[in-house]
Design brief:
This protein has eight helices and 15 strands. With 324 residues, the chain is of the alpha/beta class. The protein folds into two domains: 135 residues, NAD(P)-binding Rossmann-like Domain (Rossmann fold), CATH 3.40.50; 180 residues, Dihydrodipicolinate Reductase, domain 2 (2-Layer Sandwich). The chain has a seven-stranded parallel beta sheet, sandwiched between helices. Strands 11-10-12-15-14-13 form a six-stranded mixed beta sheet. The protein has a two-stranded antiparallel sheet with strand order 3-4. The two termini are 14 Å apart. Bound molecules: 3-amino-D-alanine. 3-amino-D-alanine binds next to helix 3. Belongs to the aspartate-semialdehyde dehydrogenase family.
Length: 324
């Protein structure tokens, strides 16, 4: 099996390698691609040293079986179809293909690829952890409406976001964000659209409906960057179609294998990025009824944005394709 990683030197790219090792992906040949700037770098992986190559059009014809990409929208727009035409299955972590009608948007615990196209999209990080929490509720009670308020870590912006936080602590001006992130919070992730929402908020709204396969769910979001290195937190306010209790919601989460419930506030138990970072599951807590709306609950949800939010989900998709 010949595998390529595009964006191998990035923050998510290095986690991709970690996950390929963790899930014991059985490759015979591995090629690591990057932009021109990072090409020539050496990466040690599973006892071998790889030299990272610049991705150019002619290299897409390299008899790849699978290509995982995490190099930004414009790289995916240009190169994913070339790899596809040359026979590879591409799993893409950028936002470019996610909402195309013929492209599968996959969280393996929730939905499976139809492979209409040989490009599969990995959802947005904050969307993945949120739909993992919503999915068992949707199956059991039906989700009617959702409001997300996110608290997203700087590693969601890659190395530049981490730099802005770390250097900001030393008094440096930001280069990735429009305002300092050190000792601050920024209610803007990605660009503003004409209606005042950001692109990140629209991603969460649209992708939730596509993954849960229901356009009627009413979804809204406010996305905020916080000075945390890793793991996103999402405050989910969800209205269910069937009446239920706080206890039943908690029990539904407990029975879903991919969720860890940390919810005993009287003993100080609730999840934070501290507990979720480097973990593979999604953490929920602070589950309580919202008395202002019928059948409505608050759920605090935390997940590692670089793992389940990105590299882990991508490699799980790859594994399920190889296994089936
Ligand atoms: C963010 N969701 O956190 C984005 C990254 N993919 O900025």
């Amino acid at each position: 099996m010949k595998l390529a990683i595009v964006g191998a030197t990035g923050v998510v790219g290095s986690k991709m390698l970690e996950m390929i090792d963790y899930y014991e992906i059985p490759f015979d040949d591995l090629v690591l691609f990057s932009s021109k700037r990072s090409s020539g770098k050496k990466i040690d992986f599973k006892g071998q040293t790889y030299t990272v190559e610049e991705l150019t059009e002619d290299k897409t014809d390299g008899n790849f079986d699978y290509v995982v990409m995490s190099a930004g929208g414009s790289t995916s727009e240009k190169f994913a179809p070339l790899f596809e035409q040359n026979g590879a299955i591409v799993i893409d972590n950028s936002s470019f293909w996610r909402m195309h009608d013929d492209i599968d948007l996959i969280v393996p615990e929730i939905n499976q690829p139809s492979l209409k196209r040989k490009i599969i999209a990995n959802p947005n990080c904050s969307t993945i952890q949120s739909v993992i929490a919503l999915s068992p509720l949707h199956d059991k009670f039906g989700v009617d409406r959702v409001h997300y308020a996110t608290y997203q870590s700087v590693s969601g912006s890659g190395a530049g976001g981490i730099r802005d936080l770390e250097e900001g602590a030393k008094g440096e001006a930001p280069t990735t964000y429009p305002k300092p992130i050190y000792n601050n919070v920024i209610p803007q992730i990605d660009v503003f659209l004409d209606d005042g929402y950001t692109k990140e908020e629209v991603k969460m709204i649209d992708e939730t409906k596509k993954i849960l396969d229901n356009d009627d769910i009413k979804v809204t979001a406010t996305c905020v960057r916080v000075p945390v290195i890793s793991s996103h937190s999402v405050q989910i306010n969800v209205t269910l179609k069937k009446e239920t209790s706080e206890e039943e919601v908690r029990e539904t989460f407990k029975q879903f294998d991919h969720i860890v419930v940390m919810d005993d506030v009287q003993s100080g138990v609730y999840p934070t990025p501290y507990e979720a970072t480097d973990q593979h599951k999604i953490y929920v807590g602070r589950i309580r009824k919202d008395p202002t709306l019928e059948n409505t609950f608050h759920v605090w949800c935390v997940g590692d944005n670089l793992l389940k939010g990105a590299a882990q989900n991508t490699v799980q998709i790859l594994k399920s394709l190889i296994d089936n």
